Amino acid sequence: MVSTCRTLWITLLVAFGALCATPARAQAGIGGTPLTTCVSRVQPGDTVRGVLANTGRFDCTTRQIAFGRGDYWILSGRLPAPADPAAAVRVRQVSLWQDSLAVYAIAADGRITGSLDDNVGIDRHIQLGAIVEHRFTPDGAPVERVLWRVGGAANMRGIVVGARVTDDIESQRSNMLLAAFYAGFIGLCAGLLFYNFALWRVLQHDFQIAYCGLLACLVIYALSSSGALAWLLPGLANNRRILTSYLALSWGMASALAFCACFFERRILDGWPLRLIQMVTVIFGLLGVLLMAVGPIAINPLDRIFSLTMCFAPVAVGLVVWRAWRRRSDYLWLFALSWAAPVGMLVVRSLYNINLLSWNFWIDNSTMVAMSVETLTASAAIAYRIRVLSHERDEAVRQEAISRELADTDPLTGLLNRRAFLSRAITAPGSRTLMLFDIDHFKQVNDTIGHDGGDEVLRQFARTLRLHAPPGVLVARMGGEEFALLGEESAMPDPDVLLANVRAQRLPFDLRVTSSIGICHGPLSDENDWKRLYRLADKALFQAKAAGRDRAGRAPLSMAA
After folding, report:
1. Where do you find CATH 1.20.1070 in the chain?
2. β-pairing, 89-94 with 164-166?
């Protein structure tokens, strides 16, 4: 996985560096020489020649967005003199929301050639970078000017934006370089999507599935905003392709904010920061639904809502980061490192969306540039986050095991306590042998050497039982000086050997003690069986004590059966 990310990252850097090799290419991302443009509204009865005969009607100073929606003529300035007058000319501009597009080439001898396309036809001219390109071959005289007729222009960013003239070689080079850039980005996102989804299936962390949603949206956005979707689906209307980009960005932002809400510790975002993130997330999610439902007929108001929400998103993220800093989140530096580029992109893109910045190819593609950085740094952040969570989980499991062991263990002797002994004894199937032990005259031991000495006697006695109890035999302290062994009859130790070892045990102050044992054998399948076995073993123990202590008493087989 690391080598794959490294390869894709190198591919992105090479493509980006090649695109930025010259200032002109860095500015356009689409190659060629920029053209000046002038605007005129379409009037009833307009014809191409009639419009060209009255160039004084064109406005060359007012910003295009000031004209609003409608149908427009756009006239270029004079094209630069070609090095080869017979070479084909390619006219390029940014793909925008419009219902129809006609592009006409005006030759120096007055001849006019061109084509008119509806919304589906526009998609056939899309090149990588979402650039609309028309190719004209001079027939005796070079192309001197270009005239566009745009029908149904939404004019949210302009009418004809990024107009340029280029040649075949530059167009092909641009497509090749952009193909490397977009392929690297899509491959990176797709690889991380499958990787994180596989991790989510195993670990089930919420931030992983949110990140998978973000990566899926980025793949769709890259396909649509790059223009590759027009190549994959030739019959797709251009406005539908643009709408897909809006949708992918809206739901991608919702996924990114959901990731933000899940990535930090729960204590960080409790209260208003979490509600704020959830509110903006819901807005982006609902905006995506609205874009699907009514986008084709209400793109202008939806675009304004989208732009304002995009402006608010960096503010929401900034407030979350501020809260994480105030509450000293362990993951703040990871989040800040991986999301600095996307947040910066959001600010720049928001300024562009509200027309405070002019169009630029890299602003238009800033999402992919920023998210290329984010996906790689966020992968490291997620890996670290999972590592920390794994350590926390392992520590929780360890603490739980310790707590469970402490709850089941007698703190003085380390043997099972009565509760744990009973819970394991009753679930054991088949017949069992129960041995009950009682240290003889233990009160005198306490009176002689004190309670601390008595505790040491209990510990020594417990070690003797544990030493002689084979695997599978339960050993427990039932309370006070009473102990118990339980297991299959064939596995139980010889009681006489146990008594001899207790008797031979050297204790504090050179004290020696003895023990009495009550033994009973019988079925043990439920609590009633246990009560019966215990009662019989206790009775046998009483008989051993009555017979002089330091011996084993056995319940008669007829009583145990």
Report:
1. 181-394
2. antiparallel
For the record, the structure tokens of 127 come out as 């090149």
Q: What is the separation, in whole angstroms, between the first and last Cα of the chain?
A: 66
In this structure, which topology does domain 181-394 adopt according to CATH?
Rhopdopsin 7-helix transmembrane proteins (1.20.1070)
Q: Which residue has the tokens 């794959």?
A: 4
Residues pairing with 328 in the sheet: none
Phi, psi of 7 (to 5 degrees): -60, -45
Contact 162, 130 (CB under 8 A): no
Q: Which of 133, 170, 456, 481 is catalytic?
A: 481
User: 61-107 pLDDT, tens per residue?
Assistant: 999 999 999 999 999 999 988 878 888 999 999 999 999 999 999 99
Whole-structure pTM value: 0.66
418-560 has which fold? Alpha-Beta Plaits (3.30.70)
CB 96 within 8 A of CB 153: yes
The answer to whether 293 and 358 have CB atoms below 8 angstroms apart is no
CATH 2.60.40.2380 positions along the chain are 31-166
Give the architecture (CATH level 2) of 31-166. Answer: Sandwich (2.60)
Q: Are strands 552-554 and 515-523 parallel, antiparallel or unpaired?
A: parallel
pLDDT tens-digit profile of 325-338?
Answer: 888 887 787 777 77
Q: Is 400 a catalytic residue?
A: no
Q: CA 324, 326, 331, 337: dihedral to nearest 10 degrees?
A: 80
